[in-house]
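A.,

Following up on our hallway conversation. Structure tokens first:
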């Protein structure tokens, strides 16, 4: 059995949809929303008592928007999974947490990345001590619904929907865009091998944001809206590092990022135009 914390987000929904009914049990948010507290141990224990031996705890709950207070990121992205790991270790259960590849790619992380980097270091320490814990660093996800408004893809969709110019940097930043369903397959490949510690879910074929934007706006025939270089280039970003695909993911299919993102943007914009019943 897989016990899922955070079943309402993009990744959580995809994890639930990919497995047969009953194999993934998604906890109600009201069950775990206070598990970040120091005194949450007894509540977590009561939940774990019903888990069959060999179950896996997937902690997909998280605060993503870097504009939210740092305290929110620390509570949900660090303290909650740490409490779960403490109790799951005592119960003999594996825990999988999720972070971001930016943990290893930027020198001055925002509150979101900083909280995930702290979590990754904690998982590495627990794995070195012999606990069954895995921290999976995720690239940029798309698919499974409307992109978040604060993300690059969400901002592109907003500009395309409104027919207004999309201003961006020169776009030299490197990104891997992964369809969420492909990452779910990658997660299950990792679970099947029982990998401990920190692992980046990379396919090794990044694109620049410039290439991605040109492909999307060109594919939709809206090149005139794209304003490359209208904003300054971020000083702290990934412009050169390509993360290689780990051996455990050699058999996992990842669709083409540029074509996959274009297809997804088409579906999002098409859905937005459909009349409501």
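Then the amino acids I'd put at each of the 277 positions:
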């Amino acid at each position: 059995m897989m016990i899922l914390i955070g079943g309402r987000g993009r990744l959580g929904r995809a994890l639930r949809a990919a497995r047969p009914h009953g194999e993934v049990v998604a906890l109600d948010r009201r069950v775990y929303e206070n598990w970040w507290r120091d005194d949450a141990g007894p509540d977590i224990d009561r939940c774990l008592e019903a888990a069959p031996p060999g179950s896996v705890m997937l902690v997909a709950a998280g605060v993503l928007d870097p504009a939210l207070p740092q305290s929110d990121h620390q509570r949900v992205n660090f303290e909650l999974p740490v409490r779960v790991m403490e109790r799951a270790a005592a119960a003999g259960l594996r825990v999988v947490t999720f972070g971001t590849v930016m943990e290893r790619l930027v020198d001055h992380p925002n509150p979101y990345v900083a909280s995930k980097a702290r979590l990754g270091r904690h998982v590495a320490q627990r794995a070195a001590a012999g606990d069954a814990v895995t921290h999976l660093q995720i690239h940029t996800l798309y698919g499974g619904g409307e992109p978040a408004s604060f993300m690059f893809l969400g901002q592109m969709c907003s500009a395309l929907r409104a027919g207004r110019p999309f201003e961006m940097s020169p776009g030299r930043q490197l990104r891997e865009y992964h369809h969420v369903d492909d990452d779910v397959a990658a997660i299950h490949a990792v679970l099947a091998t029982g990998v401990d510690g920190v692992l980046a879910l990379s396919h090794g074929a990044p694109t620049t944001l410039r290439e991605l934007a040109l492909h999307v706006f060109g594919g939709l025939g809206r090149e005139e809206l794209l304003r490359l270089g209208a904003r300054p280039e971020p000083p702290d970003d990934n412009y050169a590092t390509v993360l290689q695909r780990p051996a455990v993911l050699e058999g996992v299919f990842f669709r083409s990022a540029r074509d996959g993102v274009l297809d997804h943007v088409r579906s999002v914009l098409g859905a937005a135009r459909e009349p409501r019943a």
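The mean pLDDT is 94. Curious whether your intuition agrees with the design.

B.
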